What we know:
The chain is an all-alpha fold.
Amino acid sequence: KNKNMNNHKKILKDYRNTIEDQTGIDVQVPGRTRDKTDLVKIFCHHAKKNNQKISYQTIGEFLNRDHSTIIHSCNSYLSLYTTDKDFKDKAEFFITRFCAIDGHSRDESNKDELIELIELAPEVTRGEWLKMIKETPLIKKALHVNVDYETVTND
Length: 155
């Protein structure tokens, strides 16, 4: 368990250093500027989402914050990501770098984003999305294509 904890701290430290190298902002130092709170949300969200074994408490201890603050940061991330283009751009920038630290690429970032939205949405919302998606012309066409294979004969 101790080895795991050291690995988690190394990953978190790498994320922190990446943010600080790019922005000059240290997410471990408390502060309430919009820039800092955005970066903390991105940090917390990615640390929790991509490293399931890292607890909210571990992330909180690393950032010198309470675990409930970390939960709130993770929960706030999605609404900002889906409504604020500047936040989304900033998140994409750092998440791409965090994925490199984690040792995986973001080749399927659209798929990842869809899965993330699905996991965070209540079932009722998923149903509404599915209905809406199925009604789009492109999807309708794809769902209703019946391919008839002709038998090829060699005469």
